[in-house]
Every structure is written in structure tokens, then in C-alpha cells.
Amino acid sequence: MANIITTARNIWKIEELRQRLIFTLIALLGVRIGSFITIPGVDVNLLTQASAMGDSGTIFGLYDMFVGGAFSNAALFALGIMPYISASIILQIGGVVLPELQKLQREGEDGRRKINQYTRLLTVFLAALQSWGVATKIAGTTAGAGGMSVVPDAGFFWVLSTIMILTAGTISLMWIGEQITDRGLGNGISLIIFIGIIARFPTAVSQEVSLIQAGSRSFVVDLILLLLLAGIIASVILVTQGARRIPVQYAKRVVGRKVYGGTTQYIPLRVNTAGVMPIIFAQSILFVPATIASFFPESIFWQDISRLFGEQGVTYAATYGIMILFFTYFYTAITFNPKEVADNMKKNGGFIPGVRPGGPTAEYIENILTRITLPGAVFLALVAILPTFVGSVMQVPPIFASFFGGTSLLIIVGVALDTLQQIESHLLMRHYDGFMKTGKIRGRAGAISG
User: Fold this and answer.
1) Distance between CA 335 and CA 93 in Å, rounded?
2) Most buried of 200, 201, 308, 409, CB within 10 angstroms?
3) Which positions ≥6 away from 446 have C-beta within 8 Å?
4) Which one-letter DSSP state was computed for residue 432?
5) Which domains, and CATH codes, for the chain?
6) CA dist., res. 21 & res. 186, Å (int)
């Protein structure tokens, strides 16, 4: 505790670090303010009644979690930063199958700059498309005794203006995220999602306090829940940081009077290379039946399908776990290419002791990656199912249960570690002690994209 207080004082002493921290906090405050400003033409009173019904268990509920309630508020930032994340993932996957994108990825800084431009253009297109869907969803939302629409005049011009406003909101968030990355602390895009998720925590705590005050929950049970939460967080940190280090030896090269190489470096293969993406993919697919059922409330077929894949059901948990195992291997294969790593090592005169360069090296790395990915995938599946278990067995409200695992916890831990690692780097550069007196915090750059 004393070390944390001392570190906080050191952060405030360094002018650049203090300015970066203040800039980040102001930017995130602006993001939260934009999440409560309702778009024009929406009846706020009816919207409040409709939001109380919620979209839990649907894609809209998942989306609302990422944007910190901005979707249910029909706010300026209702789309959040998710169109940008989607565009980044599409281009990342496209880089595996499209030779043009593969060439750009190998061109260094110029290639990254062009890919960033393509990402922004695709973000605008996706944001406009999703804005149209959100506008249709809001216009079709009803509340009140007479089932009145929350948008009294949902004509063509309202839909058009809503599309423009929501698209502009996403572009603004993208710009704010880039500014935080350049002038603040941490990865701006990740922090925007982080603040949206963590903003729900006070509400979750207040619900637990209300249960204790009402006598529905014992204080001892809540204490056990907090200890369980602490243990889960520690486990997630352990797996997030866990990696298998493969030694790489570089041959000595004499250039003039200087000797290059001859050192041993390591390739860190993470246990959880895919990050949070397998859970997002699996959850999005499993929410499709409930989402379709919400559009057809009178359809017996879709209501039965929705109940079959309900969040509290055994079918949901089993299917969820299997899909996470699949997507973990799928996304790991996309984001990490052993053949490319082996080729780069061979070009730079590097080799793994006891393994021939080239094809055998790629096969060796792939075998290790396949083995260590399995426990990572199983752990992801268990973490994803934990909120369902806590909610059904221990009768914890859904908002609080979501912090016991799943997407929320993995994003919170990943972004927090990455931000702490950047702060520690700033402190160590100026000869101050960081958060840890021994060792270093190893963050995950790009915590959302895995």
C-alpha cells in the first residue's frame, strides 16, 4: 500500500506524466458525457421506460455493455468505438487472405499508415450502416401504456440526421482515442471501451448494497463473493501474463571492427494469444436467436429457440464453451504466423538451438503454440461461463455477475495491465520506482484486439 502511495506521488511529480494523466481523465470524462446526451427527436421519458425493460441476452445488450449504456440512452455515442474495432478486425483477417493487404503489412511505417487510412474509411462505412440499424431499432421501440414510439416523428429526415449524428459520434470517439494514445496514457481505443464497462460497476455495487439492506443477502455471502472475485482476477492476470519463452540464438557477424549478434533472445508465446476476441465472437453468435426473437415476440418457434439458448441454460453454457475453444484456435492462427516468424529469423541469422532453420523451425513453433493454446482456450471458456454460474447458483444480479468473468473482466484486466505498464515505463525512464519494486508489469498492447 505504501508503495502504491509513493508511486502515485512520483506520477504527480513528473510534469509530463501529470499532464498526460490529466489529459486522459478529461478525454474520458468527455466520452462519458457524450454517453448521456440523447440524440434529437427522442422522447426521453418514454426512452427511460423502454430502457428499464432492457435488451439483456441480445446483441443490443452486449453492444450496450461496450458503450457504457450509451445505446440504451440513445446517446450521441450510442455506437461507441465498436465500428472502428470491427474495421480493424476485418482488415486484420483480410491480411491473411488478400495479397495486397499482406504486402502493405510488410512495408513498415508506410504500409501501416495506408492500413490506418483504409481502417478509418471502413469505419465510416460501418458506422453509417450500423447507424441506420440503430435508428430503425430506436424508431421501433415503444413504451408507455399505449405502446407509444419513443420517437414521435420518425420520418426520413430524422433517420438521416440520426445516421449523420451517430456516425459523427463514432468518428469523434476514434479521434479522441488517437489523441489519448498520442498525448495521454495507455491505448486510447481500449480505454474508451474500458471506461464504458467500468462505469457500470457503481450500479452493480449499489444493487448488492440494496440486497443486503433489504435482508435478501447476507454480508458474509457478499464477503465470499468479493474473495471469489479477487481470486478470479488474480487467475486472469496470471493467464494473461503467462507465456512460453522460446530461446533464439543469433550468429555472430563481424562488420569492420564491430561484432554483431551472438546473443540469445526469446520469442514469447502467450498462453492466451487470442485475447478477448473468442468470447466476443461466440457471444455475438449465441445472442442471435434472442435478438431475432425480440423482433418476433409472437413467434412460438423463435421464442422456443431463445429459451433453449438462454443465458442460464445448460445448452447455452456447453455451446458457448465449445465455440470459444474453436474461435481461440481460429483467431490465434490468424494473428500469429509461425512460418513468417521462422522466415524472419532465418533472414536475420537467428535459429532455435537444436532446430534447423526454415520449415522445421516453423513446425516446432506451431507445435508449441498448439499445445499452450489448449489450456488458454479452456481457461477462456471457464471464465466466460463463470458469470452464468454466479448469477444462477449464487443469485447475483446480472450487472454484478458480469464482472466475475467473460468479456468485461478480460477487457478490464488487459487494459489496466497495459496502462500500468506504460506508467511504469515513464517512471523507470526518470529513475523512479514503479508499482513493483522487483520485476516489471508486462502489459498487452492492443488489449481489445488480442
Assistant:
1) 8
2) 409
3) 187, 190
4) -
5) 16-199 (1.10.3370.10), 200-450 (1.10.3370.10)
6) 10
Contacts of 271 (CB under 8 A, 6+ apart): 239, 242, 243, 244, 372, 373, 375, 376, 379
- What is the grid cell recorded at 357? 532453420
Q: Are 380 and 323 in contact (CB under 8 A)?
A: no
> Which segments of the chain have a pLDDT < 70?
1-4, 50-62, 144-146, 252-262, 291, 294-295, 297, 309-313, 430-450
Smallest CA-to-CA distance from 387 within 85, 57, 128 is with: 57
Tell me how far CA of residue 429 lies from CA of 7, 32, 425, 434, in angstroms.
14, 32, 6, 10
What secondary structure letter does DSSP report for 265? Answer: E
Distant-in-sequence, close-in-space partners of 344: CB < 8 Å, separation ≥ 6: none
Residues sharing a CB contact under 8 Å with residue 211, sequence separation 6 or more, in sequence order:
217, 397
Q: Which helix (H) or strand (E) holds 254?
A: strand 253-255
Contact 410, 279 (CB under 8 A): yes
Residues 6+ apart with CB under 8 A from 259: 252, 253
